[in-house]
Protein 1
Amino acid sequence: MTDESKTAADAPHDDFGPVGYQPLSRIQLIGGARLQAAWSRIPHVTHFDEADVTALEAGRKRRNESQSATRLTLLTWVARACVDALREHPRFCASLDEEGRRVMLKRYLNLGIAVDTPMGLVVAVVHGADKLSLDELGAAIAGLAERGRLGKLKPTELEGTCFTISSLGGLGGTGFTPIINPPDVAILGVSPARIRPEWIAGAVEPRLILPLSLSYDHRVISGADAARFCTHLRQQLADGCGITPSIA
Ligand code: CAO
């Protein structure tokens, strides 16, 4: 670079004041390289939608209060709705081959769950998510999240995903555009549900609305596919995936 082409941005940062350095963790280095590759190689589009989870949340709270079973978070139902939507829309449970000429449809269903840990972000994998009951699915996610935070995930619990959920629902924000986790072709971002006034059957009602953002590989999935997938998710969540007790 010649002197003439240098800009203020090229000046060493410590010209302006003291700086400190923090090394990236091994997880951040490995994860960062994967994210960089995914971001630059995959043509991402993010589709936004919202689900009315008023009834589901009321049913979830009743269930958690009345049963001695494990506490289930809203994410469990989101995961269950994804399992159902993936069965109906198999192109979302797929990978693109190396040459980018064939879509490999997977006949198994492993769900990746992004977990925030002190060492960085990891994607823990619920193997055979379609074979689990709602309670088993919730317990599997909670167990993986716990082991992830303690740095105790086994290598097999970090591989084999078909589709990933990245939930910031317990943390904050109004929406975000998640980066696809290869070899997946789509990822669902979930943001915190909030109560807001909705116009329903001629009257304004307070409803709990859950923001969803689905990033997909546009080589494999079209905008119409994404809209249909999210419509399926919305419908599943609106009726509690048909498995929330007393959901009215
Ligand atoms: N809206 C409103 N409330 C939500 C919610 C949502 N979308 N999602 C979860 N909640 C609620 C839960 O139901 C729970 O409520 P109760 O206390 O009443 O039971 C509460 O928030 C706390 O949930 P949680 O955070 O303990 O558990 P979870 O199952 O929702 O999430 C996990 C687990 C592993 C996804 C989360 O701990 C985590 O690590 N999230 C960060 C993931 C991340 O960093 N993603 C960004 C990656 S960049 O693409």
Protein 2
Amino acid sequence: MKVFVTGGAGYIGSHTTLCLLEDGHEVVVYDNLSNSTVHSLRRVQELTGRVVDFREGDLLDGDAIDQVFDEGGFDAVIHFAGLKAVGESVAKPIRYYRNNVVGTLNLLESMEKAGLRRLVFSSSATVYGDSSDVPLVEKSPLDATNPYGRTKEQIEDILSDLRASDPRWSIAILRYFNPVGAHESGQIGEDPQGTPNNLLPFVAQVAVGRRDKVFVYGNDYPTPDGTGIRDYIHVMDLAAGHIAALGYLESHTGDFRWNLGTGRGSSVLDVIEAFSAAAGHPIAHEFAPRRPGDVAVSYADPSGALADLGWSARRDLDRMCQDHWRWQSSNPYGYAGPPTSNDLSSN
Ligand code: UD1
């Protein structure tokens, strides 16, 4: 298939692009590089020996998307591009709704014009809000609690309405739990700009010596060790889930929703312990107050994806931490490398 991948230079996008190429697909990546770099795609090319056709572009520029689709031959779109920082979305809701929702509307309009009606969309377990009814199943009620999460929920609704208006659409909505880890080569991985919001990249930066200690947000949750429980999923398992969904859409029309998680919960302390073992040294941490908006426990019931797609996550938490560590220790400062004197402010 010829696949148009929005956000393909980012963390999940680059790993999925690698898997698509290894599977023999042709890939055109469309990315505005607002939170990513072309280095990830260079490394994907090195790892696969295949060419990534990269187009720098923004989803807010519908004409630019049309121009790419005018080249013809596309069979499907995988749509990763989007802003994803919860705290920033609370501070800048208009930016989030415009970028994520309007950007997706532009993409869908361009797809319609091009007669392209096969789409895999990156949603998130964040759409379930603070439902305490675990494991979360796809029909659990949706109740996102912040603008970022609401953009995902709104896009899901838009996609349902679109498919109801035209039964020729094939749409897979993938609700990711907590993506972590890296390709086993250690050559591509998560490269957050600034202070990481999420647990694994923070732990990894402490492990590699870029930060002093991990702040564990809350040790008074109603969980066995008092810390929050999440369903961490290896990014390569997640990438495989996209390939499986794409295959499903080849022979099914409709709009489908699948949880992509392992079905197993791990606490913050479990993660720190597993990462310490992977890194070969203890990781300093300190208990801190709960982070506003966090839930105690979240994990998936991934049986829908197994039944429909034959997909399940194969890599466990130890493997996630080992692969994440290989990436972080080989690239302590991410793709850009260590800061140079030119990066220092002159005042
Ligand atoms: C967060 C977002 C979610 C988003 C997801 C993307 C919030 C409230 N939720 O999920 O919308 O889809 O990232 O991956 O931001 N923790 C610490 N110390 C840290 C960081 C995290 O103790 O420095 C704890 C958290 O309290 C939580 C767990 O680690 O219990 C996981 O946190 P995180 O990686 O941020 O993911 P989520 O909160 O599940």
Protein 3
Amino acid sequence: MRRRDFLAATLAAAAAGLAPRSTRASDSLVEVLLNEPIGVIAPELQGHFTEHIGEVVYGGIWVGENSKIPNVGGVRKALVDRMRQLHAPVIRWPGGCFADTYNWRDGVGPRTARPVRTNFWDNDPQLCHAPDGPQKYDPNTFGTAEFMRFCQLCGAQPYVAANVRSLTPHDFDEWVEYCNSPAGSATLAQTRAADGSREPFNVMYWGIGNESWGCGGDFRPEEYAVEFRRFTSWVPDYGRKLRFIGSGPGASAQDPQVSWTRGFLAHLVPGRPDLLDRLFGLSMHYYCGTTRKGDSLEYTPDEWYQMLWQANVMDSLIDQHWQTMSQFDLDHKVKLVVDEWGAWHRTTPLGPAYLFSYVPSLRDALVSAITLDVFNRHAEKLAMCNDAQLVNNINTLFLAVEDRFVPTTIFHVFDMYKAHQGGRSVRLVCDAPEISYRGEPSGTRVAGGGAGEGEEKQFWRLAGSASLHDKRLIVTVVNSHASDPSAAEVSLRGGEAKSVRVTVLTAPDIHAHNDFDHPDVVVPQPQPTTVSGSRFAWTFPPASATKLEVDLV
Ligand code: AHR
């Protein structure tokens, strides 16, 4: 059956209360092992990231109190409403690379008196084509108090990245003092009160630099270990243990960069195992994608699989870094924090100021679904993960230009997957025929100008994750096949379904996407069903993410 016909038949069958015809003969198995717990899925695994880059902060989040765009104290209201819908757990700020140039003092005090500073990203060639504005010259209107207010409005925890490259530990201590000192105590508590918050912000998560091997200072791992010690010694904690996150590697599909993880820990831990208590988490960044080369909306079926394969590399990266960490931390006190991840494509600018922005498609939705499933399956290893970035950037959940605002395909994945937050991840295994496709050509181009043919490769057809919440089981499954449905038997080992609610995110065209003029092309659709029992048939549509919400007997 062709993909389009299949979708029509499935929807018609569903509307008639029937299982789609193709479910009667399954070629695949999705098995949930309810008695094989992995770990609790920290809500923070569905965290976000916002940087002073392009139109993320200015334009995306901050529109100003006097804007015609509906806002709450200067913050875009539509964004806040959607973040609340997601139960957004945590937001990282102010970078990214920007963090290691940022002087937090520039962003406190009366807004009109704050200095204008050249933004870190001003060096990016794309900004040459943009008019002067906050993307090049940051007015510091959005500072610490504004970010905290944004977090409070969203119901999210703040996660603040310190400047290790160009400020001192003393500056860091004072930023913590500004944020966390008790009401009416230190002078900086009074500065904070004048900025609108008498009560402390109680920021718990602090990143010690960002990409310290690169834009964050070009440190070697042994040098960064020294900086980490200096920055985390005797930071004022006001009776609450702060959660310091060490700057980790920038992994790629070709090179996991475990040498950074090993080098850093080898210089931090020996002789001072107590220092592990100071390291709440070690970060890792992984961007998949065509990294600035390929278009987010134009791709062949082979390129579809190439991208999904890259997203899936996250699985082995987590394993590899975890193994390396275990050499220094046998008890695994320290968790991994994937505080930047996403699909990075060539910018398709909404305007030159919109650095790294593109319109995400159904392919990016599946990249995100695959990644969130991977996180769930590694729940015992991960403390936090942050999608890069929230709005108008890489792997973005929202596009926002002036008063136009649209949730992307990626937003809808987060909306479906929020049901996993706080659940106990249990093992899920899939058995389905693999898909053959052509991998990326090894050279860039062959003579004659066309792209060379890559080797034949295989990719899985079905994968997912499952979480238990008392008598409710959440199962999410990606069918990666670009055109074929997958008729599966769903087996609940150690449980029985009383009833099942199904939601599917897909579209007839693998290039489908939401934009300002077509906001609802890719949105989750409930699928009526009457399946129950410990084994039942379900057909996963092509190119889809599916959520099964199971009420257990
Ligand atoms: O997310 C964009 C940039 O990618 C971040 O600033 C940096 O940390 C990473 O290299």
Protein 4
Amino acid sequence: MEINKVGVIGCGLMGAGIAQVCAQSGFTTVVREVEQAALERGMGRIDAILSKDVKKGKLSEDDRAAALSRLQPTTDLSDLRDCDIIIEAIVENIDAKREVFSTLDGICPESTVFASNTSSLTIMEMAATTKRPDRFAGLHFFNPVPVMKLVEIVRAITTSDATVATLKEFTLALGKTPIETRDSTGFIVNRLLVPYLLDAVRVLESGIATREDIDLGMQLGCGHPMGPLTLLDFVGIDTTYYIANIMFEEFREPRFAPPPLLRRMVLAGHLGRKSGKGFYDYE
Ligand code: CAA
Ligand code: NAD
């Protein structure tokens, strides 16, 4: 199946990155947010990153302008009606995602492929709200999307081979490397990464070491580009908290349980970089 027009739902940390990469790869991209202010914030982030790339000499002014011209921001879900593929990147909440997909199912033609960028939710639980469970899959990008090369293609038990083939081709057209995984909570990367990040919070909570030394330990001792607490701020404390709850609910193993400090940080609005404060200050 040929993909020309892409729809992205959500223009937060991930949606903005996904929309940017799609537009830069030549796809007309409609990006939808719930309200105008959030849409402007997301579009502003894309513009800032493209402008920075122009300043660094990584991107020409013409290519920046062309990418921006391919982006169609909207708050109206029905503007996604003629997209060939829709990638959902809204908050990590099953009810919110199910509502979006069941509404879209009534708006889009049968041929449109639906994909969720969920980190931890079950793809089948979203696919089941639509009449196209064969044209439904997970398409899991990594943060920051313009930089990270990987995309996990998640095959629900109903996903057709043709849908997987289309998604592979699309992922390659975005300049990313696809890997395939079954619809098991956390897929490949988060199944391994999330317990590690939660353990770093437990080490901090137990007073074994400072946040700086925990981060330096993993950066200099293991060659990670970021220490785990810096990475948690980067991913978002709220998003990590939702992911941990979903994974714990599924596996019932203590290593997936969110440490108490995470919940308190979410309650305090300390959501990481995006709110200006997390384990570190970004004001
Ligand atoms: N958007 C776009 N580009 C960005 C960016 C962003 N948010 N942040 C950094 N970059 C670019 C910079 O512009 C820079 O580009 P050039 O080399 O072309 O100049 C490049 O990335 C490197 O950036 P910096 O030199 O500023 O900093 P760095 O060398 O520390 O790299 C990093 C930044 C790429 C983010 C690196 O620290 C890194 O790889 N961190 C780990 C990220 C990671 O693990 N991501 C996965 C999170 S888990 C996930 O996504 C799954 C989930 O479901 C939760
Ligand atoms: P975020 O909080 O930065 O952005 C979510 C955005 O979705 C917000 O701007 C919100 O206004 C918008 N939104 C909520 N409901 C909407 C709706 N019905 N229609 C349109 N927009 C809506 O979150 P994020 O970090 O971008 O995460 C989004 C998704 O991507 C989640 O499922 C998350 O698990 C997944 N994910 C996150 C990361 C990460 O590192 N943060 C990495 C991979 C996958």
